[in-house]
Amino acid sequence: MKPIVRAALLCVSLFGLGAVSSARAADENAPPTAAGGGASKDLVLKGDARCTRCHDQDDNPQLLAIGKTKHGTRADARTPTCTSCHGESDAHVNNPAGLSTRPKPDRTFTKNSTTPVEARNDACLACHQGSMRTLWAGSTHQARDLACTTCHRIHSEVDPVRVKVTQPDVCFTCHKEQRAMINRPSRHPIVEGKVTCSDCHNPHGSAGPKLLARDSVNQTCYTCHAEKRGPFLWEHMPVTDDCTNCHNPHGSTVDNLLKVRMPFLCQECHEPTSHRGNMPGFVNPNKFDNQPQSLGITEGRACTNCHLNIHGGNSPTNNAAARSFRR
Amino acid sequence: MNKHQFFRRTALSAALLAAFGPGVAAGDEVTEATKPDSGVDVGAGYVNKDNQRFGQYNGLNKQGGYGLLDFYLQKREEETGTWTRFTGRNVGLDSRELHFDQERQGNWSYSIDYNQIPRLSPYTVNTSLQGIGTNSVTQGTTASPKSDVELKTERDITTLGGEKWLGSRFNVRLSFRNEDKDGTRLWGGETGGNMAFIPEPINFNTRQLEATLGFIGEKLQLSGGYYGSMFTNNNSSLTITPAPASNLISPEPLVPGNQAHQAFLQGGYSFTNTTRGNFKVSYTRATQDEQFIFGNPTGTLLNNLTSPNARVDTTIAQFGVSARPMPKLSLLANFRYEDRADKTPETPFVTAGGVGLTNTVFSRITRGGKIEGSYQLPKGYRATLGVDVLDTDRTVPDVRIVSWRAKNDETTYRAELARSMSETVNGRLALLHSDRTGSDYLNNVKPGATYTTTLAPIIWADRTRDKARLTLDWMPTNPLSLQLIAEDGRDDYSGLPLGPQTGKEYFYSIDGTYVFSESFRANAWVSRNYTRMDQLSKVVNTTTVDENGSPVPNGTVWGAQLANRGDSAGLGVSGKPTGQLELGVNFLYQYDTTYQGMSLANGTEPPQLPDYYYKLVRVQVYGTHPLDKKSGVRLDVINDRRTTNDWLWTDFVYPQDGTTVRQDTHAVVTFVGVSYYYRFQ
Questions:
Q1: pLDDT tens, per residue, chain A with 327 residues
Q2: What pTM did the predictor assign?
Q3: B592 vs A318: CB contact, 8 Å cut-off?
Q4: Do B216 and A165 touch (CB under 8 A)?
Q5: Quick check: A45 and A80 in contact, CB under 8 A?
Q6: Contact call for residues B321 and A138 (beta carbons, < 8 A)
Q7: Exposed, middle or buried: residue B261 (CB in 10 Å: 0-12, 13-18, 19+)?
Q8: Which of A179, A272, A289 sits opposite B540 (nearest CB)?
Q9: How far apart, in whole angstroms, are the C-alpha atoms of residue B99 and residue B392?
Q10: A160: which DSSP letter?
Q11: Using CA atoms in the order A105, A109, A112, A115, what is the torsion angle rounded to 10 degrees?
């Protein structure tokens, strides 16, 4: 902001506060005007003149971008003003001690803010308690002192975490392992913005493990993979228990997001009786069956070359194939 | 790294401009800074090569030109606070998304979404099978002429939503989502001793309905409602010609339709400014009652049932309280209960050893609790201690071919030390130790068969887990910030001689960002992740041989050492070399290697499986140049290189008809896109 404008405003604030207040009340819904010269008027939000007389479009137009968002919709009676979140900040506004470094607002939200995280979050929770954030208190992110503004950009027209394509980048600020996984050959379409983190997780709190969007792993997966829900006539126990017993939803080098390639995956549970203990290999290159070191259990779809309905079968026929997911 | 930069929204078309208002009045800087923006990107792109992985999910899988259109149009009526928004992404591609909504803030809103998700199989199938994608296929023979087939699925999703505020405290939300999924996927089974390529025809419909009533008070927040999910498979069965001789049958039953209906209630209450409780309870009934597909050969049937009458009821309850009894002390406690009750009637269906075996029914109850305390120490440090307990009870089936456990208990201890509010270094060190035990293993039993009880299944084996994680944020100088993450963990299994033995993992990552100036910055990162599982099994077939071709005696223990190592790196630079031209480069490197080693306990070595890798190198360059204050042009160039030596399908030939499957082991794809953007308000 130009120095002369700042000086003019200082004069106004010292000798014309009353005039400014009454002018502000009278012009509560008046169109915003540029600051400088005469009484300060709100630029974006009701009652923001206190702040925007300095933080105007010449000082930092990016701050005014809040006007482009739902937080800047004046017609909504719930819309806050600057001091709703940042506090009245008398020391910052008036600098009564005449300090060369102006005191900061009562509540700041930058990365190096000294405002306790809980105090910062209280500003948001004053309006945004409930709904998807009902279970915030005691959730993993809350307990780890994550501020709302760690993930959210309030003064930006676009909040990257609320856009599907850019949301993962925000989450990867902390969750680096998942950043490495999403480009693996077997994956969800996260890179393409078709699936994003909040499709499966509710970072604001959840009744499920790992902040899952639904109440359990399986209920979350069934949102898009309802064909796996069953119940089936022949259930496969680890499937009914937890999809992540076998799958890594963030990405894998094994087809179908499996953690480990078959037969090794299945041999983590199944007794080595009959063919279940057979070692994979290429010893029998022309054998496509379940014999040891045959291509039947090593290549292709391995165990599911025969056990095709591995998530559950529904055949009622009196045949062992029905019971063991081969039909 | 920003993905999908080539579809960044900006620009405009005249027709949409007419609907959404004129441009910004010159000189009205405040209006420009505070009024919602709109924009449109329109252009054309070109892909140089047919591909299956680069274009797997975005529709850019064929060589040729593509129309590019993204738009983001929004208008707000200031007097009423009513928004109108219309957005489109990838409109010219098979991965298009369209969204329209209107909202009077604090009063009502409605929306409609359309989303297409293609998925191309990374494999090409060479086959003589006829009728792929339909509910009737005809197999050829190994001598039949074959042709290449691409398998793919496509989801078309339409979502309708609405919300209405009833006063300032109550609101009602409705959401209806309809998804049609069509296509085929790689599938198959065994017929007459031969493995057969039988792709699954997919013609699914999933409908989800959610209705919520919410109350938001000063201390109390409540929401309750209904969530329903209805899945329909429009193909109940698959006819296979010629009819399979065994195992597979014709018609072969396909995945049956099912439904799930849930009622839920959740809430939170602030007892004081520093004490809050919350809860959620839900009850879900999932059913499946499709008519049985009996197929041929059916053989005898043990009952007269025509449908399974399957039903699973799941009750979940979660209660939590968090408090700050002292300014520096925070406490939280949480309890979660889940009861999966399988109510499917148990009826004999299959005979084994002269005994009729019933269908499989699995019920489970889990109870979990957590207590955690956190204390603020001097100099910005914070210490946290916590204990988690998880208790699981399972029903025991009469027939068991895994070593069953009716009960598991796991206790986890956590300790963390964090430092924040420092201008230079912030971080967190977390340590975790957990012990899982359970009831005695139950003998495997199945009439007419002999089973051992020697292998502890990974999902409930005794396990000790230790994990450490360090996170550091460091800003050595103002323009440079660094972030380090290091994690190391180990699992030790015990209880039975076979099964998982040890698991290991580590992860390291370094990120750096350097801000050269307001208009020029760079970021780079590198990470490595490693996981390994060692497990044991046993030779059970006399035809197993060692690397010299000598038979390995039955009963010989053999081990698998399964590891995956991933190395990733990224680099991004963006800036304005001139006042107007903006340039950016993003580079991604990823190299994943999978090891599957095997060993024999008798001192000999078995023939090994080759390691395999997947490598991805992607370079994206973009540039934008304004033509005037509102518009400009953008160029995007992406070069995507993928190589692999994966052998999964290399030697596999379906014996039934000679079908083979392959993938492109060295794919280099280049995309070039040029677009014009226009921004307005």
A1: 444 444 443 443 333 333 333 333 333 333 344 444 446 788 899 999 999 989 988 887 789 999 999 999 999 999 999 999 999 999 999 988 888 999 999 999 988 788 999 999 999 999 998 889 999 999 999 999 899 999 999 999 999 999 999 999 999 999 999 999 999 999 999 999 999 999 999 999 999 999 999 999 999 999 999 999 999 999 999 999 999 999 999 999 999 999 999 999 999 999 998 899 999 999 988 888 999 999 999 999 999 999 999 999 999 999 999 999 999
A2: 0.92
A3: no
A4: no
A5: yes
A6: yes
A7: middle
A8: A272
A9: 44
A10: G
A11: 60
Nearest CA among B70, B46, B74, B76 for reference residue B60: B46
Torsions phi, psi for B572 (to 5 deg): -135, 130
Among A64, A222, A318, the residue with its CB nearest the CB of B300 is A318
Give the position of tokens 């999964």.
Answer: B648
Residues of A in contact with B280 (CB under 8 A): 134-135, 207, 215
Instruction: For chain A, say whether B484 makes contact (Cβ under 8 Å).
Output: no
Residue tagged 């290429």 (tokens): A282
Total number of residues shown for chain A? 327
CA distances from A72 to A40, A75, A159, B24, B76 (A): 18, 9, 14, 18, 10
The reply to whether residue B652 touches residue A295, judged by beta carbons under 8 angstroms, is yes
Amino acid code (one letter) for B235: N
| Residues B400, B444 contacting (CB under 8 angstroms) | yes
Largest CA distance in chain B: 91
CB-CB neighbors (< 8 A) of B566 in chain A = 180-181, 184, 253
Residues 6+ apart with CB under 8 A from B663: B52, B122, B123, B124, B644, B646, B649
Nearest alpha carbon to residue A39 among A13, A2, A3, A74: A13
Cα angle B445-B447-B452, degrees, rounded to a multiple of 5: 35
B96–A contact, CB cutoff 8 A? no
Residue A245 gets which letter from DSSP? G
Neighbour count for residue B79 (Cβ, 10 Å)? 9
Give which of B392, B419, B420, B412 is closest to B467, Cα–Cα: B412
For B530, the token pair is 């490693």
Type of residue found at B347 = T
Residue showing tokens 């997966």 = A221
Q: Are the C-beta atoms of residues A176 and B372 closer than 8 Å to each other?
A: no
Segments making up each domain of chain A, as ranges: 3-94
The predicted complex's ipTM stands at 0.94
Helices assigned H by DSSP within B10-121: 14-20, 29-34
Contact at CB, A145 and B338, closer than 8 angstroms: no
Distance CA B101, CA B89 (A): 15
